[in-house]
């Protein structure tokens, strides 16, 4: 089947994201900043949130483990949006151009469910162009689990080979290919645009 729809990851494809963006506002010492970002606010609990755990369950455990860092830990729940940086240059323009060309647009994102709703509302101008977005934290499954791609194909009404999936992690793009998508390992908007033109979706 020919590709007829484009499916985007959100973090680091449409929007820059890193916990450092929040904590550099709170911590001046670069050594302390690195410790908070890499040790205290580690990928382990980001992964738990992406799989559907809620922050109210995680926060007490983290504070018990790092009591001296309680204020920084609490900041995550109230200021999560500040970990999201600017739009990736050129990518929103691509979304708008696809929308103007009547190409169906979808999303698959590893994103905490409770933080997704306010973020999506804040960025409605871009996300209103999407027909549907599968959010890992709402589903309890996350990339690169094959189940999230199978769920997306069913929910989006796409057959094998009908969707092009863009993700900044090669492992996720490759996993999507095994489940029926065409995968694009995202690097920048220029490369993505060229691929969309090559596939006949733009240009």
Looking at this protein, list some descriptive labels.
alpha/beta; 203 residues; Rossmann fold; 2 domains; two-stranded antiparallel ribbon; 12 helices; 14% strand
Write down the CATH topology of the largest domain. Rossmann fold
Distance between the termini: 20 Å
- Contiguous uncertain segments of 5+ residues: none
Order of helices and strands: EEHHHHHEHEHHEHHEHEH
Global morphology: elongated
Whole-angstrom Rg: 18 Å
Which sheet architecture does the biggest sheet show? Answer: 5 strands, parallel
CATH architecture assignment name of the largest domain: 3-Layer(aba) Sandwich
Q: Kindly report the spatial arrangement of strands forming the biggest sheet.
A: 5-4-1-6-7
What is the top-level CATH class of the largest domain? Alpha Beta
Structural class call reads alpha/beta
Number of domains as seen in the coordinates: 2
Q: What is the assigned CATH homologous superfamily of the largest domain?
A: HAD superfamily/HAD-like
Mean pLDDT: 96
Write the layout of secondary structure elements.
Elements (H helix, E strand, L loop, with lengths): L4 E4 L6 E3 L2 H4 L6 H11 L2 H8 L4 H11 L4 H10 L4 E4 L3 H10 L4 E5 L3 H10 L1 H4 L4 E4 H4 L6 H11 L6 E5 L2 H9 L3 E4 L3 H10 L5
Helix pairs in contact: 4-5
């Amino acid at each position: 089947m020919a590709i007829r729809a484009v499916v985007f990851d959100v973090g680091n494809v449409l929007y820059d994201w890193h916990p450092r963006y929040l904590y550099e506002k709170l911590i001046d010492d670069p050594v302390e900043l690195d410790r908070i970002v890499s040790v205290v606010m580690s990928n382990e609990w980001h992964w738990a949130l992406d799989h559907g755990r809620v922050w109210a369950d995680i926060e007490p455990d983290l504070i018990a483990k790092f009591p001296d860092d309680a204020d920084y830990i609490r900041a995550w729940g109230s200021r999560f949006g500040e970990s999201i940086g600017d739009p990736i240059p050129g990518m929103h323009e691509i979304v708008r151009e696809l929308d103007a060309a009547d190409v169906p647009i979808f999303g698959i994102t590893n994103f905490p469910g409770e933080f997704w709703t306010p973020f999506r509302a804040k960025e409605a101008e871009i996300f209103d162009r999407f027909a549907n977005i599968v959010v890992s934290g709402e589903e309890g499954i996350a990339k690169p689990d094959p189940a999230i791609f199978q769920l997306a194909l069913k929910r989006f009404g796409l057959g094998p080979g009908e969707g092009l999936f863009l993700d900044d992690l090669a492992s996720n793009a490759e996993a999507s290919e095994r489940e029926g998508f065409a995968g694009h390992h995202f690097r920048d908007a220029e490369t993505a645009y060229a691929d969309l033109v090559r596939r006949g979706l733009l240009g």
